[in-house]
Amino acid sequence: MQDVPIKAGADAALRPIQIADLDGRACDNPCNSMPYRVRSAAELDVARTYQTITKAIAAHDAGAWAKHVADEFVSYASSHAPLVRASRIAVIEDRNDDGAARVGEVKTMRLSVYGDGAVMVATESNGLQPPYRAARVFVKRDGQWLMAATAQTDLKSQ
């Protein structure tokens, strides 16, 4: 279950969500490896698509990111208005984004493929905010996996 309280207002007017923390380090997890053992070729394809997406974010390469994200993409995050594909592209392109194009390290992950759809649920941490749970939906179109949505919820300590 994802509980994402949303602030009112236009998505482009709000501070973008922070989804990674490189701080000059190489993006090993999740760009090159993740704590997950794939169980099928389809899971491997989805995981590789996600890694390609994170590499594009880390490199501020909006063109590479857009190739792996569906046109209807929307990002939801705790205390932020939804961020649509075009707005997310602008954030990735902004090299002076003050940390908005960051990639969280995957701590735990589950991945399930259902035909031409897949769901990835991960607990992540980027060092700038509390750990968070990210749920991502992928769709397969014309033989290619695309991320269609993501919802990130801050985890509260108990």
Please report the number of helical segments: 3
Give the strand line-up of the largest sheet: 2-1-6-5-4-3
Low-confidence stretches: 8-25
CATH topology: Nuclear Transport Factor 2, Chain: A
Under the CATH scheme, which architecture would be assigned?
Roll
Structure class? alpha+beta
Give the termini separation. 17 Å
Q: Topology as H/E string?
A: HHEEHEEEE
Shape: globular
Radius of gyration: 15 Å
CATH class: Alpha Beta
Total beta-strand segments:
6
Query: What's the pLDDT, averaged over the residues?
Result: 81
- Largest sheet geometry: 6 strands, mixed
Folded structure, characterized:
By secondary structure, the chain is α+β, with helices and mostly antiparallel strands. It has one domain (18-154): Nuclear Transport Factor 2, Chain: A. 20% of the residues lie in helices and 32% in strands. It contains three helices and six strands, in the order ααββαββββ. It has helices spanning 41-58, 62-66, 85-93; strands at residues 69-77, 83-84, 105-114, 117-125, 132-141, 144-154. It has a six-stranded mixed sheet with strand order 2-1-6-5-4-3. The longest helix is centred in the N-terminal third of the chain and has 18 residues, at 41-58. The radius of gyration is 15 Å and the shape is globular. The two termini are 17 Å apart. The model is unreliable at 8-25 (pLDDT under 50).
Outline the fold blueprint.
Blueprint: H1 41-58, H2 62-66, E1 69-77, E2 83-84, H3 85-93, E3 105-114, E4 117-125, E5 132-141, E6 144-154
Parallel strand pairs: 1-6
Antiparallel strand pairs: 1-2, 3-4, 4-5, 5-6
